[in-house]
Amino acid sequence: MTAPRSRPRQLRQLGAGIFQAGISSFRLHLAAEGKSAKTVRTYTEAVQWFAAAHLPARASRAGWEEVDRQDIQRWMAGLLARYSGAYASNQYRALQQFFKWLAAEEELPDPMAGLHPPKVTGKLVPVFTSQELSRLARACAGRSFAQRRDTAIVAVLTATGIRLSELAGICYDPDAHRSDVDLWQREITVRGKGGKPRIVKISHDAARSFDRYIRVRARHAQAYRPQLWLGVSNRGPMTASGIYQMIARRGRQCGIAVYPHRFRHHFSHTWLDRGGAEGDLMELNGWTSPQMLRLYGASARSARARRTYDRIMQDRP
Questions:
Q1: Secondary structure class of 146 (helix, strand, coil)
Q2: Is 68 helix (H, G, I), strand (E, B) or coil?
Q3: Edge-to-edge strand ranges of the sheet holding 187-191
Q4: DSSP label at residue 102
Q5: pLDDT in tens for each of the 317 residues of the chain?
Q6: Helix, strand or coil, per DSSP, at residue 156
Q7: Distance between CA atoms of residues 90 and 49, nearest Å
Q8: Is residue 68 part of a domain?
Q9: Do residues 176 and 264 both lie within one domain?
Q10: Which residues have CB under 8 Å from 73's CB, separation 6+?
Q11: Under 8 Å between Cβ of 202 and 192
């Protein structure tokens, strides 16, 4: 089976013609609701692609009010023929939000009412083994600035499962009242989707790694910067992209496929597998919908079932 092709590039350059005004208004609506820049971009690019690639072929469509459910169905069928179900489902949900807004804004019928998103085949949630985490820790170990910084980043991700954007946005100040980091309480304030703040807890080991980085950070030429994570050789703050590249590079050094979001999977799976409360996990992860809980809950149930098998089905004399 051939792998689904990657997402089309440079969607912003696609012209939507007479449909462009509606897309621009939708973008303004999302921004006014406080949606993250990523959400605004993802939703509007999906609508832009649909309008530019599909609607021109339907010459009779003189405006959004003439788009019907068959236009949506044809578009989704085309996506499913070329891309994964998960990708097509994301495109569907973006269009769904657009037409829901348009129906309310212009008092029009919603062409997606009664339709259902493409079925997404479940897949195993990738989690780390204890051996992999140990190898990753050894790859970062040392006393240099980069080694202590990278050790702290991996330790915080492992202990909290926070999003990459949340990690990159952490600010530090020696005055605890102005800092996102409170090592005494082992707490970090992060800002999730829409800038909503929440407090996450870290382990004692993560706090120790954090403290070691803070000490070496104090000698950095740009230690006055509020951003916590600084670059090597007295460079400025690390971006989310820079952190991602560092983590992937450390993974390659020890032969492990590592990316920031894998830590989020691992933290959530471990929490549920050890009997942690689902409501507490939603709070720690900044989730407002139980949809993600169902995904991680299934992964944890599978792990428990396999352990139970070994206990019940073990060979007996």
A1: helix
A2: coil
A3: 181-182, 187-191, 197-201
A4: H
A5: 334 444 444 444 567 788 999 999 999 999 999 888 888 999 999 999 999 888 876 666 778 999 999 999 999 999 999 998 889 999 999 999 999 999 999 999 999 999 999 987 766 667 899 999 999 999 999 999 999 999 999 999 999 999 999 999 999 999 988 999 999 999 999 999 878 899 999 999 999 999 999 999 999 999 999 999 999 999 999 999 999 999 999 999 999 999 999 999 899 989 988 889 989 999 999 998 887 787 777 777 788 788 888 878 876 65
A6: helix
A7: 13
A8: yes
A9: yes
A10: 115
A11: no
Residue 314 tokens, joined:
């073990």
The beta-strand segments (E) located in 179-303 are 181-182, 187-191, 197-201
**Start-to-end C-alpha separation, the chain:** 45
Cα distances from 246 to residues 202, 219, 241, 251, 259, in angstroms, run 21, 21, 9, 9, 9
> CB–CB of 158/137 below 8 Å?
no
Q: Is residue 6 part of a domain?
A: no
Q: DSSP assignment, residue 198?
A: E
Residue with tokens 């060979």: 315
Q: Residues 185-219, buried b or exposed e (16+ Cβ, 10 A)? A: ebebbbbbbeeeeeebebeeebbebbebbbebbee
Domain span at 208: 130-304
Dist CA 180 CA 251 (whole Å): 28
The domain that holds 170 is classified in CATH as 1.10.443.10
Backbone angles phi, psi at 79, to 5 degrees: -65, -45
CA–CA separation, 300 and 307 (whole Å): 11
